[in-house]
């Protein structure tokens, strides 16, 4: 079975998939503009930048970036720029969408527009790939960015979205650990009940294309030694590819702990829309945004 060892594979994978067109709403930040220009330079994307053209050109000049070969569409209002960006992706004029310096709520309102948005009938969810140096592999974490307190049905959809992404990356049967604070089912801990139900749903074919086990605590999900000490025998325990977290708070903390305390590299994408959405945070580095573009391009 294929296991992702580091995030550098995303660059090659995205180039291998062929040049994709990315539409970027309001790319005024240095990290966003720099990442898009680099992705264009190395042949991952053909970029279309929508927003205040003079502001974009001034920022590129300030950074010493070349905009040769990159299309710019002048739109003075951020709301209109966001709407135009989403419409370009929805119409097929672009293959993926990226958020620049525009509020998340504004972007999602456009994405979810019933007439020209990117609705697919599936739940939108966030997946972040985290390069864990000490483990020598990449772990996926979902959903620490979209769904606050998903119920059982939503959790099943979140897993299925992430599994589809893994399939596109070449992992045919990802191992999914459904996390809780403990690995034993406890009626007083709802996360353990959902984890056990999701495991059973996978065994009955209600969740497909992956191996699912839970509840698992974080240690015995990623450490074979921890799983062995606790006597957990499972193809997932100790070797998880994907961590399904109970809620947005735990997922957000896992992701930010990896980034800010352990210095891990990450790449994130919104799944469940008709096209991938690269929606990074303002504090994310240029490397994170470049890798996120590569991830979106690789699965589009």
TrEMBL record:
One Gene Ontology term of the molecular function aspect: acyltransferase activity
Stretches assigned to the Phosphate acetyl/butaryl transferase domain: 84-295
Pfam families, sorted: PTA_PTB
Key words, A-Z: Acyltransferase, Transferase
PANTHER family: PHOSPHATE ACETYLTRANSFERASE
Family: Belongs to the phosphate acetyltransferase and butyryltransferase family.
Name of the protein in its database record: Phosphate butyryltransferase
